[in-house]
Amino acid sequence: MGKLRWELKERYDAQALRFVEITDKYEKAVIDAGTRLQDLKAELDAIVRTEIQTGADKGAEKTKMRARITEAEADVAQAQVERERAADYVRAESEKDRVTIRDLVVDWNGPYLKAVREAELYPIVKRMAAARDAYYSAVLEYYQLVEDYRLQRHEIAILEYDDKRPGDGIAVHEIANIHSLPLVTYEDFRHIEQFKKLPEVK
């Protein structure tokens, strides 16, 4: 049996996902811009090392690389500004028609729980009540059966007791014993709860 659809929870999950996608987008832009800047700085360091090691004039390359680094630094700064603006937008939008945790709790305790009970719980309770009534009816029939044969068994038991032949004493059995019947026990309920399956029939 599947879970009953909870529309308010779906809205709550969707709003969280939408805001995460927005913030992730701009956070990634900052990371990417920072990575490009670090790569360019590493390239400049490599040029300087080559210049030192070889004595070659790398002035033009260094100038060009420094210009690219300056441009990359501006990109990082701009990405950070946009990330902050996105965060401000998310904070503002999250307050509009926002589904709060309190909304979820109120809806759970009210309309949603009522719908789950009506759709899924009450049919189970109805079957349990019918099964209980049928079980109790069978228990009543058992005791009635024992009662129907009680006097006859008692009569035989008296006759057996009065029979004085040595070594010939035989117990007169009951029709049945309550402990030999299929009883419902607390242990059965615990087994079902814990293992989510029916207990083995003993």
Topology:
Elements: H1 7-54, H2 59-93, H3 101-148, H4 150-162, H5 186-195
Helix pairs in contact: 1-2
What does this structure look like?
The protein has 2 domains: 7-99; 149-202, no CATH class. The protein is 76% helix and 0% strand. It has 5 helices and no strands. The protein has helices spanning 7-54, 59-93, 101-148, 150-162, 186-195. The radius of gyration is 41 Å and the shape is elongated. It starts with 6 loop residues before the first helix and ends in a 7-residue tail after the last helix.
The outline comes out as: elongated
Low-pLDDT sequence parts: none
Strand and helix order = HHHHH
Radius of gyration: 41 Å
Tally of individual helices:
5
Q: Sheet with the most strands?
A: none
How much of the sequence is in beta strands? under 5%
Helix and strand content put the structural class at mainly alpha
Number of strands: 0
If you average the pLDDT, what whole number results? 90
Give the number of domains: 2
Approximate helicity band = over 70%
Distance between the termini: 29 Å
